[in-house]
Amino acid sequence: MDKDVRQELQSLPKTLAEDVAKNLVMVARLLDEDPEGAYGYSKVALRLASRVAAVREAAGFAAYATQKYAEALGEFRAARRMTGTVELWPVMADCERGLGRPEKALDMAGAPEVHKLDKAGQVEMRLVAAGARRDMGQLDAAIVTLQSPELASQSVQPWTARLRYAYADALLAAGREREAREWFAKAVEADRDSSTDASDRLAELDGVEFVDALAEEETSGVEDAEEAAEVDEADEAEEPGKPVESTEAVESTEAIESTEAVESDESGHVASPEAGDKD
Protein backbone atom coordinates (compact mmCIF):
# COMPACT_ATOMS: atom_id res chain seq x y z
CA MET A 1 0.00 0.00 0.00
CA ASP A 2 1.17 3.52 -0.78
CA LYS A 3 2.91 5.31 2.08
CA ASP A 4 0.59 8.32 1.90
CA VAL A 5 -2.46 6.05 2.16
CA ARG A 6 -1.01 4.33 5.23
CA GLN A 7 -0.52 7.71 6.82
CA GLU A 8 -4.12 8.64 6.12
CA LEU A 9 -5.37 5.45 7.72
CA GLN A 10 -3.43 6.18 10.91
CA SER A 11 -6.18 8.64 11.83
CA LEU A 12 -8.51 5.65 12.30
CA PRO A 13 -8.64 3.18 15.20
CA LYS A 14 -6.19 0.34 14.59
CA THR A 15 -8.72 -2.43 13.94
CA LEU A 16 -10.79 -0.20 11.66
CA ALA A 17 -7.69 0.95 9.80
CA GLU A 18 -6.71 -2.67 9.16
CA ASP A 19 -10.16 -3.52 7.81
CA VAL A 20 -10.16 -0.51 5.52
CA ALA A 21 -6.64 -1.31 4.34
CA LYS A 22 -7.63 -4.87 3.42
CA ASN A 23 -10.51 -3.61 1.29
CA LEU A 24 -8.34 -1.01 -0.43
CA VAL A 25 -5.74 -3.66 -1.25
CA MET A 26 -8.45 -5.80 -2.85
CA VAL A 27 -9.67 -2.83 -4.89
CA ALA A 28 -6.16 -2.34 -6.25
CA ARG A 29 -5.72 -6.05 -7.02
CA LEU A 30 -9.04 -6.51 -8.81
CA LEU A 31 -9.41 -3.18 -10.58
CA ASP A 32 -8.06 -4.36 -13.95
CA GLU A 33 -9.15 -8.01 -13.97
CA ASP A 34 -12.43 -7.84 -12.08
CA PRO A 35 -13.81 -4.26 -11.95
CA GLU A 36 -17.13 -5.35 -10.47
CA GLY A 37 -15.34 -7.18 -7.68
CA ALA A 38 -13.18 -4.12 -7.02
CA TYR A 39 -16.31 -1.97 -6.94
CA GLY A 40 -17.81 -4.22 -4.26
CA TYR A 41 -14.76 -3.89 -2.02
CA SER A 42 -14.72 -0.12 -2.53
CA LYS A 43 -18.29 0.14 -1.29
CA VAL A 44 -17.31 -1.70 1.89
CA ALA A 45 -14.37 0.64 2.41
CA LEU A 46 -16.70 3.62 1.92
CA ARG A 47 -19.06 2.38 4.60
CA LEU A 48 -16.13 2.01 6.98
CA ALA A 49 -14.28 5.26 6.32
CA SER A 50 -15.98 7.68 3.96
CA ARG A 51 -14.03 10.64 5.36
CA VAL A 52 -10.67 9.29 4.23
CA ALA A 53 -9.57 10.81 0.91
CA ALA A 54 -7.79 7.65 -0.23
CA VAL A 55 -11.01 5.69 0.23
CA ARG A 56 -13.01 8.21 -1.81
CA GLU A 57 -10.37 8.11 -4.55
CA ALA A 58 -10.34 4.29 -4.65
CA ALA A 59 -14.13 4.28 -4.81
CA GLY A 60 -13.94 6.76 -7.68
CA PHE A 61 -11.59 4.58 -9.71
CA ALA A 62 -13.69 1.47 -9.04
CA ALA A 63 -16.82 3.27 -10.22
CA TYR A 64 -14.93 4.63 -13.23
CA ALA A 65 -13.75 1.13 -14.18
CA THR A 66 -17.37 -0.08 -14.16
CA GLN A 67 -18.49 2.94 -16.25
CA LYS A 68 -20.50 4.48 -13.40
CA TYR A 69 -19.25 7.90 -14.44
CA ALA A 70 -21.59 10.07 -12.38
CA GLU A 71 -20.72 8.18 -9.23
CA ALA A 72 -17.01 8.24 -10.07
CA LEU A 73 -17.09 11.99 -10.67
CA GLY A 74 -18.74 12.55 -7.31
CA GLU A 75 -16.09 10.50 -5.51
CA PHE A 76 -13.23 12.24 -7.33
CA ARG A 77 -14.64 15.64 -6.45
CA ALA A 78 -14.92 14.62 -2.82
CA ALA A 79 -11.32 13.37 -2.77
CA ARG A 80 -10.14 16.60 -4.39
CA ARG A 81 -11.93 18.72 -1.79
CA MET A 82 -10.27 16.72 0.98
CA THR A 83 -6.74 16.92 -0.44
CA GLY A 84 -6.78 20.16 -2.41
CA THR A 85 -4.67 18.56 -5.18
CA VAL A 86 -5.30 18.55 -8.94
CA GLU A 87 -4.03 15.04 -9.69
CA LEU A 88 -7.52 13.76 -10.47
CA TRP A 89 -8.34 16.57 -12.91
CA PRO A 90 -7.79 14.52 -16.12
CA VAL A 91 -9.87 11.55 -14.98
CA MET A 92 -12.60 13.92 -13.80
CA ALA A 93 -12.64 15.41 -17.30
CA ASP A 94 -12.87 11.95 -18.78
CA CYS A 95 -15.89 11.25 -16.57
CA GLU A 96 -17.52 14.26 -18.23
CA ARG A 97 -16.88 12.56 -21.58
CA GLY A 98 -18.41 9.37 -20.25
CA LEU A 99 -21.51 11.34 -19.27
CA GLY A 100 -21.83 12.64 -22.82
CA ARG A 101 -20.48 16.11 -22.08
CA PRO A 102 -17.33 16.46 -24.25
CA GLU A 103 -17.66 20.24 -24.26
CA LYS A 104 -17.27 20.25 -20.48
CA ALA A 105 -14.18 18.05 -20.81
CA LEU A 106 -12.67 20.57 -23.24
CA ASP A 107 -13.39 23.40 -20.85
CA MET A 108 -11.51 21.51 -18.15
CA ALA A 109 -8.62 20.93 -20.56
CA GLY A 110 -8.20 24.70 -20.82
CA ALA A 111 -8.57 25.42 -17.11
CA PRO A 112 -5.71 26.82 -14.95
CA GLU A 113 -5.59 23.51 -13.02
CA VAL A 114 -3.92 21.86 -16.01
CA HIS A 115 -0.78 23.98 -15.53
CA LYS A 116 -0.43 22.56 -12.01
CA LEU A 117 -0.29 18.99 -13.30
CA ASP A 118 3.00 17.14 -13.69
CA LYS A 119 4.14 15.99 -17.13
CA ALA A 120 2.25 12.68 -16.93
CA GLY A 121 -0.93 14.51 -15.89
CA GLN A 122 -0.61 17.00 -18.73
CA VAL A 123 -0.20 14.19 -21.25
CA GLU A 124 -3.24 12.48 -19.77
CA MET A 125 -5.20 15.71 -20.10
CA ARG A 126 -4.14 15.98 -23.73
CA LEU A 127 -5.41 12.44 -24.37
CA VAL A 128 -8.75 13.30 -22.78
CA ALA A 129 -9.05 16.50 -24.83
CA ALA A 130 -8.30 14.62 -28.05
CA GLY A 131 -10.94 12.05 -27.12
CA ALA A 132 -13.45 14.84 -26.55
CA ARG A 133 -12.69 16.25 -29.99
CA ARG A 134 -13.33 12.85 -31.52
CA ASP A 135 -16.58 12.57 -29.57
CA MET A 136 -17.64 15.79 -31.31
CA GLY A 137 -16.60 14.48 -34.74
CA GLN A 138 -13.59 16.80 -34.96
CA LEU A 139 -10.98 14.33 -36.17
CA ASP A 140 -8.50 16.86 -37.52
CA ALA A 141 -8.66 18.84 -34.28
CA ALA A 142 -8.05 15.64 -32.32
CA ILE A 143 -4.93 14.93 -34.39
CA VAL A 144 -3.62 18.46 -33.84
CA THR A 145 -4.33 18.19 -30.10
CA LEU A 146 -2.08 15.13 -29.84
CA GLN A 147 0.79 16.74 -31.77
CA SER A 148 3.13 17.81 -29.00
CA PRO A 149 6.78 17.73 -27.89
CA GLU A 150 5.94 14.60 -25.87
CA LEU A 151 4.74 12.85 -29.04
CA ALA A 152 7.85 13.86 -31.00
CA SER A 153 10.24 12.87 -28.21
CA GLN A 154 12.44 9.83 -28.78
CA SER A 155 12.63 9.00 -25.08
CA VAL A 156 10.21 6.40 -23.76
CA GLN A 157 8.11 7.35 -20.74
CA PRO A 158 5.28 5.42 -19.04
CA TRP A 159 2.76 7.35 -21.12
CA THR A 160 4.60 7.24 -24.48
CA ALA A 161 2.94 4.09 -25.85
CA ARG A 162 -0.57 5.33 -25.09
CA LEU A 163 0.11 8.74 -26.61
CA ARG A 164 1.51 7.24 -29.82
CA TYR A 165 -1.34 4.73 -29.96
CA ALA A 166 -3.98 7.48 -29.62
CA TYR A 167 -2.29 9.46 -32.38
CA ALA A 168 -2.14 6.43 -34.69
CA ASP A 169 -5.78 5.62 -34.00
CA ALA A 170 -6.85 9.17 -34.78
CA LEU A 171 -4.86 9.13 -38.04
CA LEU A 172 -6.51 5.86 -39.05
CA ALA A 173 -9.97 7.24 -38.28
CA ALA A 174 -9.14 10.18 -40.56
CA GLY A 175 -8.21 7.79 -43.40
CA ARG A 176 -4.45 8.43 -43.18
CA GLU A 177 -3.52 4.77 -43.14
CA ARG A 178 0.15 5.02 -44.09
CA GLU A 179 0.88 7.47 -41.28
CA ALA A 180 -1.26 5.44 -38.88
CA ARG A 181 0.81 2.34 -39.60
CA GLU A 182 4.01 4.26 -38.87
CA TRP A 183 2.73 5.44 -35.49
CA PHE A 184 1.30 2.07 -34.51
CA ALA A 185 4.79 0.67 -35.12
CA LYS A 186 6.25 3.39 -32.89
CA ALA A 187 3.69 2.57 -30.23
CA VAL A 188 4.77 -1.08 -30.34
CA GLU A 189 8.37 -0.02 -29.78
CA ALA A 190 7.40 1.92 -26.66
CA ASP A 191 4.84 -0.57 -25.32
CA ARG A 192 7.13 -2.62 -23.11
CA ASP A 193 4.39 -3.88 -20.79
CA SER A 194 1.72 -4.50 -23.47
CA SER A 195 -0.57 -1.78 -22.17
CA THR A 196 -2.09 -1.38 -25.63
CA ASP A 197 -3.02 -3.68 -28.53
CA ALA A 198 -0.78 -1.75 -30.91
CA SER A 199 0.88 -4.93 -32.19
CA ASP A 200 -2.51 -6.40 -33.16
CA ARG A 201 -3.55 -3.17 -34.89
CA LEU A 202 -0.27 -3.10 -36.80
CA ALA A 203 -0.66 -6.72 -37.90
CA GLU A 204 -4.21 -5.99 -39.03
CA LEU A 205 -3.01 -3.12 -41.21
CA ASP A 206 -0.31 -5.40 -42.68
CA GLY A 207 -2.87 -8.10 -43.42
CA VAL A 208 -1.29 -10.58 -41.03
CA GLU A 209 -3.68 -13.16 -39.58
CA PHE A 210 -2.71 -14.91 -36.36
CA VAL A 211 -3.58 -18.60 -35.96
CA ASP A 212 -4.07 -20.17 -32.56
CA ALA A 213 -1.87 -23.29 -32.79
CA LEU A 214 -3.26 -24.70 -29.55
CA ALA A 215 -6.82 -24.39 -30.81
CA GLU A 216 -5.84 -26.15 -34.06
CA GLU A 217 -4.30 -29.05 -32.10
CA GLU A 218 -7.45 -29.39 -30.01
CA THR A 219 -9.63 -29.38 -33.15
CA SER A 220 -7.39 -31.98 -34.81
CA GLY A 221 -7.59 -34.18 -31.72
CA VAL A 222 -11.39 -34.03 -31.72
CA GLU A 223 -11.53 -34.94 -35.42
CA ASP A 224 -9.17 -37.91 -34.91
CA ALA A 225 -11.31 -39.14 -32.01
CA GLU A 226 -14.47 -38.87 -34.11
CA GLU A 227 -12.86 -40.84 -36.96
CA ALA A 228 -11.72 -43.55 -34.53
CA ALA A 229 -15.23 -43.77 -33.08
CA GLU A 230 -16.70 -44.21 -36.58
CA VAL A 231 -14.25 -47.05 -37.33
CA ASP A 232 -15.14 -48.79 -34.05
CA GLU A 233 -18.85 -48.55 -34.83
CA ALA A 234 -18.27 -50.08 -38.28
CA ASP A 235 -16.26 -52.94 -36.77
CA GLU A 236 -18.99 -53.67 -34.25
CA ALA A 237 -21.61 -53.81 -37.03
CA GLU A 238 -19.74 -56.65 -38.79
CA GLU A 239 -18.94 -59.72 -36.63
CA PRO A 240 -15.73 -61.31 -37.99
CA GLY A 241 -15.82 -65.06 -38.89
CA LYS A 242 -19.57 -65.23 -39.36
CA PRO A 243 -20.58 -65.49 -43.05
CA VAL A 244 -23.42 -63.32 -44.19
CA GLU A 245 -25.90 -65.30 -46.31
CA SER A 246 -27.86 -63.30 -48.84
CA THR A 247 -31.64 -63.45 -48.89
CA GLU A 248 -31.65 -64.49 -52.54
CA ALA A 249 -29.42 -67.50 -51.81
CA VAL A 250 -31.66 -68.67 -48.96
CA GLU A 251 -34.80 -68.33 -51.07
CA SER A 252 -33.16 -70.21 -53.97
CA THR A 253 -32.16 -73.13 -51.71
CA GLU A 254 -35.61 -73.41 -50.18
CA ALA A 255 -37.22 -73.45 -53.62
CA ILE A 256 -34.93 -76.29 -54.82
CA GLU A 257 -35.62 -78.41 -51.72
CA SER A 258 -39.36 -77.90 -52.13
CA THR A 259 -39.24 -78.98 -55.78
CA GLU A 260 -37.23 -82.13 -55.00
CA ALA A 261 -39.68 -83.14 -52.27
CA VAL A 262 -42.62 -82.83 -54.61
CA GLU A 263 -40.93 -84.85 -57.40
CA SER A 264 -39.94 -87.67 -54.99
CA ASP A 265 -43.45 -87.97 -53.65
CA GLU A 266 -44.98 -88.25 -57.11
CA SER A 267 -42.60 -91.05 -58.20
CA GLY A 268 -43.15 -93.13 -55.04
CA HIS A 269 -39.44 -93.35 -54.17
CA VAL A 270 -39.91 -91.74 -50.79
CA ALA A 271 -42.25 -93.61 -48.39
CA SER A 272 -44.03 -91.98 -45.46
CA PRO A 273 -43.15 -93.08 -41.90
CA GLU A 274 -46.53 -94.75 -41.56
CA ALA A 275 -45.82 -97.07 -44.51
CA GLY A 276 -42.53 -98.13 -42.95
CA ASP A 277 -44.29 -99.13 -39.71
CA LYS A 278 -46.78 -101.29 -41.53
CA ASP A 279 -43.96 -103.24 -43.20
UniProtKB/TrEMBL annotation:
Residues 215-279 are annotated as: Disordered. SUPFAM superfamilies: TPR-like. Residues 215-238 have a biased composition (Acidic residues). It comes from the Bacteria. This is Tetratricopeptide repeat protein.
